[in-house]
Design a protein that fits this description.
This protein has 278 residues and is α/β, with parallel strands linked by helices. Helix content is 19%, strand content 27%. The chain contains six helices and 14 strands. Strands 5-4-3-2-1-14 form a six-stranded mixed sheet, covered by helices on one side. Strands 6-7-8-9-12-13 form a six-stranded mixed sheet. The longest helix is centred in the middle third of the chain and has 13 residues. The chain starts with 23 loop residues before the first strand and ends with a strand. It comes from Lichtheimia ornata. Pfam families: CN_hydrolase. One of its GO terms (molecular function) is protein-N-terminal glutamine amidohydrolase activity.
Length: 278
């Protein structure tokens, strides 16, 4: 089976919304490790030109404001956040109200009973947390400090539909030991008939930006060939931390029924906001 992928960039300053369209957006950041306030200020600067009606869903990377490459539980401890009142969550609540948009952002979480997870929050346009999702498949850097989350989830969210969340490694084979064609994440969401997959990424560079996007598509193959139309929104980061370089490639892809449509993407050196009118 041959699958075509359209390479179409979408201008970030094109904000004309039609009655039937939606406007998902990815904010691709170059954060500095352990500089939470400065990283939030970077995001604020990128987003200041947008207002209510310009964006319906804003997605930021995995551990967007803390940085990612922590090397011990002791090192990350000052940056662990509560799911309701942590700095990343409070930023997301404020931005959701300002934009009148859903906001999804990744952050390192510590629960009330002291358990630590690599998590994301989903905030609705009223500034209410509607979901905390915890990364199920850990990457090697997560294993220094985080527990595995309880597993993949597909849930109905008013205003978004049937939604599934991924944090980076979730779309890979478990511990890189499972069979590549097991497609654990994609098969789960195919079975659940998920229609929107939101990915918060800190994906490491392994080639050019389109090779990264092609790999993500490969990992989602059961959704590509499935009967449901699915929208995949992935927000990755860029830059280098402790010798680890991140891939960029934040994108929006429509898939299903053996077809792909790459609606827009950001390059590996672009710190910017991608807004796609779908």
């Amino acid at each position: 089976m041959k699958i075509g992928m359209k390479r179409r960039r979408t201008a970030t300053n094109t904000l004309h919304k039609t009655h039937s369209s939606s406007l998902p957006a990815c904010c691709q950041l170059n954060p500095t490790l352990a500089e939470t306030d400065a990283n939030m200020a970077r995001a604020d600067g990128l987003l200041e030109r947008y207002g209510p009606g310009d964006i319906d869903l804003l997605v930021l990377p995995e551990m967007a404001f803390t940085g990612y490459v922590f090397e011990s539980s002791e090192e990350i401890e000052p940056y662990l956040e509560d799911e309701e009142t942590g700095p990343s969550v409070m930023w997301a609540k404020k931005e959701a109200v300002r934009l009148q948009s859903f906001v999804v952002v990744g952050y390192p979480e510590r629960t009330k009973d002291g358990k630590c997870y690599n998590s994301l929050c989903c905030i609705n346009p009223k500034g209410e947390r509607v979901k905390t999702y915890r990364k199920a498949f850990l990457y090697k850097n997560d294993e220094y400090w985080a527990l595995e989350g309880p597993g993949f989830e597909s849930l109905e969210i008013e205003g978004l539909g049937k939604v599934g969340f991924a944090i980076c490694m979730d779309i890979n084979p478990y511990q890189f030991k499972a069979d590549f064609t097991a497609y654990e994440f994609a098969r789960f969401h195919t079975t659940k008939k998920t229609r929107l997959v939101i990915g918060c990424m800190s994906w490491v560079k392994g080639g050019d930006v389109l090779s990264t996007i092609r790999y993500w598509v490969q990992r989602l193959l059961p959704l590509v060939i499935g009967e449901e139309e699915v929208c995949f929104v992935a927000s990755n980061r860029i830059g280098t931390e402790r010798g680890v370089t991140f891939a960029g490639g934040s994108c929006l892809i429509n898939m299903g029924n053996q077809t792909l449509d790459l609606k827009g993407y950001l390059d590996e050196n672009e710190e910017d906001v991608l807004v796609v009118d779908v």
